[in-house]
Amino acid sequence: MSPSPVTGANPLRDALDRRLPRIAGPSGLVIFGVTGDLSRKKLMPAVYDLANRGLLPPGFSLVGFARREWADEDFAQVVHDAVKEHSRTPFREEVWQQLAQGMRFVQGSFDDDASFESLRDTIDELNRAQGTGGNFAFYLSVPPGSFPVVIQQLKKHGLADQKDGSWRRAVIEKPFGHDLKSAEELNSLVHEVFQPEQVFRIDHYLGKETVQNILALRFANQMFEPLWNRSYVDHVQITMAEDIGIGGRAGYYDGIGAARDVIQNHLLQLLALTAMEEPASFDADALAAEKTKVLGAVRLPSDLGASTVRAQYTAGWQGGAKAVGYLEEEGIDQSSRTDTYAAIKLEIDNRRWAGVPFYLRTGKRLGRRVTEIAVVFQRAPHSPFGHTATEELGQNAMVIRVQPDEGMTVRFGSKVPGTSMEIRDVSMDFAYGESFTESSPEAYERLILDVLLGDANLFPRTEEVELSWKILDPIEQFWDTEGAPAQYPAGTWGPAEADEMLARDGRSWRRP
Ligand code: BG6
C-alpha cells in the first residue's frame, strides 16, 4: 500500500508498527524513594519483568537514591528479593545477572548537594560503563512534600539538562497536589525545570489493560457508540471498591482521604475515557485534548449535601476475620474526619451527556475488591409482553470489568424457556482470560516502558490534573464545613447515606 498522497499516512506500516515489540533504547532509571513500598512491590518487579520480556536495552541501568547506608550490592539484594517476591514473569538467572550489572545506589538526603553531585557522577559512570547514552528518567516515588526539593536539586545539579541529543524525564507519582492551588504551584515549579514533554505524571489506572480497552471498545467498534449518549443511557456508575483497609499508610492517608486519593485521579480518568469524544488519533495531544474537553464540561450539582457522601469504616467482619475501625487503625487520630468512602454525583454539560448522571464511588474495607464502569441504559419504552411490565425488569447495562475479573458483561432481558412469555435478565460475558492467550503487562510495567520510549499517551497532562482538582475542591470544601463523616461497618457496601443518595434519584447502586 503506498502512502496517501494527501497525508503521507501509510495505514499498513502503522498497523505493522503497532504489532512490533516496543523496545526501549539505551537508558536508565533513577528511583527516589527507593526504600518505599511502591518501589519494592511495583517498580523493581516491573523493571525486571520488562527485562525478562526483552523490552529493555542490554546496558539498562537502575539507580536507587535513599538515605540508607547501602552499598551497590545491598541495593541489588533488595531489588533481587523484591523481584523474587513480586515479579509476574519467572525468575531467570541470566536476565537477573545482566540487569544487576547496571545497578547502583546513591546514599543521601534530598537536601544534600553532595548526594546529587554523587548521583551525577554515577550517571556519568553508567554512561561510560553501560552505554546509557545520557538518557535517564527520574522517578519521584517520594512523599508529596518532597517533590519540590527533589525537582530543584535536579535543576541545580544540571541533571534535568538534555545534552548532545540525550533525554532526561521526570516521572511524578500521585498525589499531584492537595487541591487546585497546590497542584498549580507544583506544575509551575515542574515546568521551570522541565519542558512539558519531559514530564510524566503517573496515574497507574491508565496503565491497566482494561482501562485502555475502554477506548478500543468504544472506537474500534460500530455497535456500542451509537447508544453511548443521553438518548439511550440512563446513568453511569463508576465503582472502585477495595477490601483492604489503610494498612500501614496512616501517615499518607489520614488528611487525604478516599476522594483525593483516588477520585481526583483514577475515577475521573475513568470518567473522562468513558465520556470523551473520539480523538482524531491515538496520540498524546489528541487524547489529552478530548479528555480535557470533557473534564472541563463536568458540572457539580448545586446541592452538594444531597449529591455527595463521605464516610468512615467502623469495626466489622471481613472475609471471616474481625477488622478494626478506621479510628482504631495505628497512627490515626481519634478525631480524624478523613473519608475512607466517598460517593459523588456529577453531570456533564454537553450535547452527548446533558442530564445523564455519572455516579462515582470508592471505599476501603468494602465487600470485595472490584473496579467497574457500568453504563446503565434506559428501560424499553413499552413492553408488548402483556403481564411482564418493563418496570419489573432490570435495565440493560454494559459493565466494563476493570478488575479483578477483567472483561465485560452485557445485561439484557431474555425469554425464560417455557410456555409463557416470561422475560428475565441474563448476562453475556467477555473474559480476557478466555479470549486471549497473551498475558497483560502489569500497569507499572507498561508505564515505565512508555516513559523510556517517550510515549506520553497514558499520562495525564497539567490541564487534566488541574481540572480534576477544580471538580473536587468545592466538594472537599463543602465536607470541611460539615460535621463528622457517615459510617459503615467494614465488610459492607458503604453507608446507608450513599444508598439514600441514589434512591432520591429513583436509582440504586449495583452490587458487583
Ligand atoms: C492507589 C491508592 O493509587 O491505588 C491506594 O493510593 C489504592 O489507596 C490503590 O489502594 C489501588 O490500586 P489497584 O491497582 O490495586 O486498584
UniProtKB/TrEMBL annotation:
Catalytic activity: D-glucose 6-phosphate + NADP(+) = 6-phospho-D-glucono-1,5-lactone + NADPH + H(+)
One of the Pfam families matching this protein, by short name: G6PD_C
Glucose-6-phosphate dehydrogenase C-terminal domain mapped to chain residues: 215-510
GO MF terms held by the record: glucose-6-phosphate dehydrogenase activity
Protein name: Glucose-6-phosphate 1-dehydrogenase
Composition bias type Basic and acidic residues, residue spans: 501-512
Top-level EC class: oxidoreductase
Species in which this protein is naturally found: Streptomyces fragilis
Active-site residues per Swiss-Prot or TrEMBL entry: 266
Region described as Disordered: 489-512
Pathway recorded for this protein: Carbohydrate degradation; pentose phosphate pathway; D-ribulose 5-phosphate from D-glucose 6-phosphate (oxidative stage): step 1/3
Ranges of residues in domain Glucose-6-phosphate dehydrogenase NAD-binding: 30-213
The EC number(s) this enzyme carries: 1.1.1.49
Residues reported to bind substrate: 204, 208, 242, 261, 364
Function: Catalyzes the oxidation of glucose 6-phosphate to 6-phosphogluconolactone.
Keyword Oxidoreductase: yes
PROSITE patterns reported for this sequence: G6P_DEHYDROGENASE
Keywords: Carbohydrate metabolism, Glucose metabolism, NADP, Oxidoreductase
Keyword Oxidoreductase among UniProt keywords: yes
Residue positions binding NADP(+): 67, 174
Family classification: Belongs to the glucose-6-phosphate dehydrogenase family.
